[in-house]
Amino acid sequence: MRERADIAVVGAGAAGLMAAIQAARHAPELSVVALDGARKLGAKILVAGGGRCNVTHERVTERDFAGSSPAAIRRVLRRFGVPEVVAFFRELGVALKREETGKLFPTTDRARSVLDALLRAAESAKVELLHPCRVTGIEATAGGLVVRGACGTLTARRVILASGGRSFPRTGSDGQGHALARALGHSITPLLLPALVPLRLPAEHPLCRLSGVSVEAEVSVRSAAGRRLAGSRGALLCTHFGVSGPAVLDASRHFLHARAADPGAKLVLSFLPGESAEAVDAALVTRAAESAPRALQGRLPERLARALCEEAGVDPARPLHQVPREARRRLARTLVALALPVTGDRGFEHAEATAGGVPLAELRLESLESRRCPGLHLCGEICDVDGRIGGFNFQWAWASGFVAGTGAAAALRHAAA
Fold this sequence. Notes:
Layout (H helix, E strand, L loop, with lengths): L3 E7 L3 H13 L5 E4 L7 H5 L8 E2 L7 E3 L2 H8 L4 H10 L4 E3 L4 E4 L4 H14 L3 E3 L4 E7 L2 E6 L2 E10 L14 H8 L9 E3 L3 E2 L13 E9 L5 E11 L3 E3 L1 H16 L4 E5 L6 H10 L5 H4 L6 H11 L12 H12 L1 E3 L3 E2 L7 E3 L7 E2 L4 E2 L5 E3 L6 E3 L4 H25 L1
């Protein structure tokens, strides 16, 4: 490994590659080195979107994210928005297509197209990629920031820390970046939790016997007192361990945060979104000659309807006019307000993002330079910013990588002027 570089990027995932490319393009005269501990780069990019890579979403605002303040997130996102991302990838030869959900995917439907384009862009910009080269320490000295790792020691005038959070640790984002940031004076949010993560239920719960059943549902996070704290609507997938699917993944970080502060917080499902228990009960009364699964036919899968009858204590074979009124009403409440006895989550190993990290308040938003350690910039998942499902976390990676990369390069150019 070379002994010195102008800019060292620690982490060559989505945010790190974008930061390195933009730094090298902004100031071609500077030497830019990107270091990563993985043998093969871009593992997270390759598995994203079922191997298709959901590059971004057609419309992204600060309201699609949690963590740091919305105003701070907005300032970064505005610097490199969706149109800029689309144009950037088009320039690299990767055309994007919009799907009905608003998600933007490469027209090839191959995540490899995205990764290969980024690696070609880095090579074209003369970014030196070093891997596997795990960074184990960064030290601020009078001569610059000294980066130490498996490849030796490198002194850089600027360092961009893009080493990720803790999600998918097998891809290399195992939390080492948080230790590096702490050693350089940064704090990490008190809570560091999986985000976009499936949730576990007791093995005997009826939904665990419906593995593979998917249904449109509304998922609400409620306090112990019943106040609605957050919610999402979309596909819910029943699994052998509990529940997953976009609606659950979006609600998961809010539920886990709520439960950390309020152990009585609940995750509540409505299998008939937008309907009240009273309206559902009235509809069941109009079909009193039929069994509950029959009355719900076309609205819910039969297996799910039978499981919810079981949960409510209603015999799924009996006509509704033979079901006691209170039991029928209990079924209606179960259909629109089923509180799940969540026992846990599937952990960072199955989480798509990390909730928590370095607060944006500790960074200068125009360049994402550290307020604690001059010359250090941070971007990507290491920051306390996590988005909902649908390409939003990639958009944060591209935008924050752009700001950190151009910010580091501009600072060195200004110093030389």
